[in-house]
């Protein structure tokens, strides 16, 4: 019989004894794989739903969006020639007025063809055309429920947008293209485009965007049509979207959140891997005499390695399959709730790809953590039959196993990079995980060495017997410090990092921003209104600061004559249109970092660009940049870089141009008002009455909407971290269960030597407390360090350690280890010493 055949025979016979000793291995792998399978299944279901319903979410097969203007006659003729049907809409923010009350709303003005796909749901139920037609010669308006509640509106009430009157006809229940619109600051209103066509709300230079949805023939090549449009329409001065990604904002959010949760799941799988390794070590410790006997009978190390690899591989395969089944079933049950939370289509059918991804992660993780103890089993010699093998497996594996383990780790990282769209996030996360893993191992070994040293000090007299026994057990051979600190520390580290990030972001929003951020943004200020508005605001004693600047919006299309995204990549500055201002002299507090500002007589277009963004995009002084503004291409030379601070939520422009370059271009002004809370309401009410066309955006409301998104993200990641902690608790229980036999032996010896039950139990409790405290403190340090990196380098705000989060992390470590350890310690105390010692002698 071949060595593989013999190994399988041995493995099969040992498997007949059941899975005793492997319960933690199975449960650890099952939880880790199930968590990843569930997350990837949800991510895949949402992504496939978005892809399937891309045209409906977009409102057509393709969309061309223009800033501050409508398409020209020729541009519209081009779109009509390509499509079966065309729908025109305009989107902007405005103040909805009802009596003396005002509320910010996101207005969508639509034509009679809207919506090309899907249907609008109204209450009371009626066709959209009837609702927008209005009554008694007044155009109709459809409002989101929030506006009804905020202003106390009812059907039939009269409201205004700027100075245009509307009658409230219905409540907006369903907007077919709502998910594709992205983030908005105000609730939605729907009106007829014809009712606003000749008003100041859509005048040249005002802040609105027009979009044209195209219903295309079935055989249309979307990529080819996009390229043709870029060449033939407005020199590419528009934004293109099509049905291949009808809701890009939602898609990016789901992908990034999914990637992050997969990384949290991999952290959980790593914790499970510690449990797998501990289970295999404990099992092989019990099999030392069996392995020694097999070697005595002539079995070579390859046969023994394969025999236990077959056993553990079979059980790991069962655990992975079970995890995949659970991971596939949980999302199916959760999809109804997901649909209510996210207004996007979700494909709830099972998907093979995410399950394959989770299976690969599970296989590689189990192989990594199983290989080490299996390779160390080679060191067991036949002489172990005649020596005390109490201290278990020792030594390092041979170099081929170390190389194999390195390759498996590389394969796991490579798989994560392959399956994620953010390779940088994956690599940094794995680097952080590796550092954390290493620190926890060092902390466990350091705790062992410290306990060994303290237990030998003369200070540990008879009165401190429980403490001396606890320290001696932690510092002795075969101690469980490393496995406890690892299994619990990883889960607590993730929770600590998330808790500190959440606490710091809340602190920044609650304390820092109100001191620096403006009370209101004011937009759509006409040039002939800015002087009077400035006089009114600056004359208010409650206003501490007022800033105003002319503003246009433009799309950066080319850098040095080449496509901008080809030169600078998908930088956020290039993803859409940007706010642009002009100034003859540097604004107050402007810091020029490189180059010089233009002179007052300069007529050729010149550009001052934000220094940090310029460095990220690889821009240099002298580069030429083409910006499409209101359908006109302006090519200017970058002559200076300057510092722009966006952290205070105030006014900041990435791009400033000399005034001569924008002469004659229609534009409006934007302003920021810093005022006391008492002065805000009367000031804004007065401005709304004097200048009904302007829009005021309360910064606190915008921040609250951002906070709600952050809270959703924090809740999702906290659930992922909690799953990691549950896995760590399972591993901890397994570690305690594996050490139960040792505790019985210790308790029996100590009872024989005269120690009371209370002292023995106290020593076990102190051991658990010390290990839990060590795990909690290490998790606090590593989690806080990770949180500091995110807060400092990504969020760019000041970091402060949250004492509340820190305390809960440390207490959590102590509580979990104490409960699990004492459970098995109490069971060990109930065994009679004679029975344990007689078994040990035999």
UniProtKB/TrEMBL annotation:
Cleavable signal peptide: none
The keyword Transmembrane helix is annotated on this UniProt entry: yes
Segments crossing the lipid bilayer: 21-42, 260-284, 305-338, 358-377, 398-419, 425-448, 469-498, 713-739, 760-793, 805-826
CC per GO annotation: plasma membrane
Species of origin: Celeribacter halophilus
Protein's name in the database: Putative ABC transport system permease protein
Keywords of this entry: Cell membrane, Membrane, Transmembrane, Transmembrane helix
Domain MacB-like periplasmic core residue range list: 25-231
Location(s) in or outside the cell: Cell membrane
Membrane topology: Multi-pass membrane protein
Domain of life: Bacteria
Occurrences of domain ABC3 transporter permease C-terminal (ranges): 264-377, 721-831
Pfam family name, one: MacB_PCD
InterPro entries: ABC3_permease_C, MacB_PCD, Membrane_comp_ABC_pdt
């Amino acid at each position: 019989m071949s060595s593989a055949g013999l190994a399988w025979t041995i493995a099969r016979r040992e498997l007949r004894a059941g899975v005793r000793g492997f319960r933690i291995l199975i449960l650890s792998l099952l939880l880790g794989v199930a968590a990843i399978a569930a997350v990837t299944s949800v991510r895949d279901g949402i992504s496939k739903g978005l892809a399937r319903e891309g045209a409906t979410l977009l409102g057509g097969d393709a969309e061309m969006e223009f800033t501050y203007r409508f398409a020209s006659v020729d541009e519209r003729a081009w779109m009509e020639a390509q499509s079966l049907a065309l729908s025109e809409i305009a989107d902007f923010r405005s103040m909805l007025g009802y009596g003396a009350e005002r509320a910010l709303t996101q207005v969508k003005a639509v034509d009679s063809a809207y919506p090309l796909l899907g249907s609008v749901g109204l209450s009371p139920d009626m066709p959209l055309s009837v609702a927008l037609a209005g009554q008694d010669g007044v155009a109709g308006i459809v409002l989101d429920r929030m506006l009804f509640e905020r202003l106390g509106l009812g059907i039939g009430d009269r409201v205004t947008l700027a100075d245009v009157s509307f009658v409230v006809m219905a409540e907006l229940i369903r907007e077919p293209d709502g998910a594709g619109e992205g983030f908005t600051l105000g609730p939605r209103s729907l009106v007829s485009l014809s009712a606003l066509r000749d008003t100041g709300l859509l005048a040249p230079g005002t802040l609105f965007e027009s979009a044209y949805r195209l219903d295309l023939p079935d055989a249309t090549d979307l990529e080819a049509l996009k390229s043709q449009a870029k060449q033939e329409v407005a020199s590419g001065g528009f934004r293109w979207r099509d049905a291949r990604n009808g809701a890009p904002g939602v898609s990016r959010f789901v992908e990034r959140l999914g990637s992050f949760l997969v990384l949290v799941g991999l952290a959980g799988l790593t914790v499970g891997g510690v449990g797998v390794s501990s289970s295999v070590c404990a099992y092989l410790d019990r099999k030392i005499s069996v392995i020694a006997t097999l070697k005595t009978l002539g079995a070579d190390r390859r046969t023994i390695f394969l025999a236990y690899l077959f056993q553990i591989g079979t059980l790991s395969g069962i655990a992975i399959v079970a995890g995949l089944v659970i991971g596939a079933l949980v999302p199916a049950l959760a999809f109804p709730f997901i649909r209510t939370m996210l207004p996007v289509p979700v494909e709830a059918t099972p998907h093979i790809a995410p399950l394959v991804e989770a299976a690969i992660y599970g296989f590689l993780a189990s192989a990594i953590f199983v290989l080490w103890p299996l390779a160390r089993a080679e060191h067991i010699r036949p002489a172990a039959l005649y020596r005390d093998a109490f201290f278990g497996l020792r030594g390092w594996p041979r170099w081929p196993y170390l190389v194999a383990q390195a390759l498996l780790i590389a394969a796991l990282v490579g798989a994560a990079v392959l399956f994620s769209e953010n390779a940088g996030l994956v690599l940094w996360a794995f680097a952080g995980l590796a550092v954390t893993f290493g620190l926890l191992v060092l902390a466990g070994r350091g705790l062992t060495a410290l306990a060994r040293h303290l237990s030998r000090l003369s200070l540990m007299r008879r009165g401190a017997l429980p403490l001396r026994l606890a320290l001696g057990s932690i510092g002795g051979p075969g101690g469980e410090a490393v496995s406890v600190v690892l299994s619990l520390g990883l889960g607590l580290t993730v929770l600590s990092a998330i808790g500190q990030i959440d606490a710091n972001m809340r602190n920044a929003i609650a304390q820092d921003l109100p001191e620096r951020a403006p009370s209101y943004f004011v937009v759509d200020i006409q040039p002939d209104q800015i002087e009077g508005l400035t006089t009114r605001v600056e004359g208010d004693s409650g206003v501490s600061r007022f800033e105003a600047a002319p503003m246009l919006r433009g799309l950066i299309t080319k850098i040095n004559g080449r496509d901008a995204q080809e030169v600078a990549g998908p930088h956020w500055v290039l993803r859409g249109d940007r706010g642009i201002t002009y100034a003859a002299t540097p604004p107050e507090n402007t810091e020029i970092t490189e180059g010089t500002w233009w002179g007052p007589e300069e007529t050729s277009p010149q550009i001052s660009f934000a220094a940090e963004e310029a460095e990220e995009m690889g821009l240099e002084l002298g580069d030429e940049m083409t910006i499409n503004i209101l359908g006109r291409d302006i090519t200017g030379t970058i002559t200076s870089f300057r510092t722009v601070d966006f952290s205070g939520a105030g006014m900041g422009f990435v791009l400033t141009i000399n005034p001569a370059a924008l002469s004659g271009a229609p534009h409006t002004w934007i302003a920021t008002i810093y005022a006391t809370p008492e002065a805000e309401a009367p000031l804004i009410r007065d401005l709304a009455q004097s200048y009904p066309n302007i829009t005021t955006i309360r910064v606190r409301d915008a921040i609250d909407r951002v906070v709600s998104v952050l809270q959703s993200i924090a809740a999702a990641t906290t659930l992922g971290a909690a799953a990691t902690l549950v896995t760590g608790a399972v591993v901890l229980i397994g570690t305690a269960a594996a050490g139960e036999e040792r505790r019985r032996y210790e308790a029996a010896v100590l009872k024989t030597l005269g120690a009371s039950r209370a002292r023995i139990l106290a020593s076990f409790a102190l051991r658990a407390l010390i290990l839990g405290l060590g795990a909690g403190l290490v998790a606090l340090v590593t989690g806080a360090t990770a949180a500091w990196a995110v807060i400092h380098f990504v969020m760019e705000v000041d970091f402060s350690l949250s004492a509340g989060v820190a305390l809960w992390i440390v207490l959590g470590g102590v509580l979990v280890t104490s409960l699990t350890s004492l459970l098995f310690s109490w069971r060990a105390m109930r065994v009679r010493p004679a029975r344990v010692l007689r078994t040990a002698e035999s």
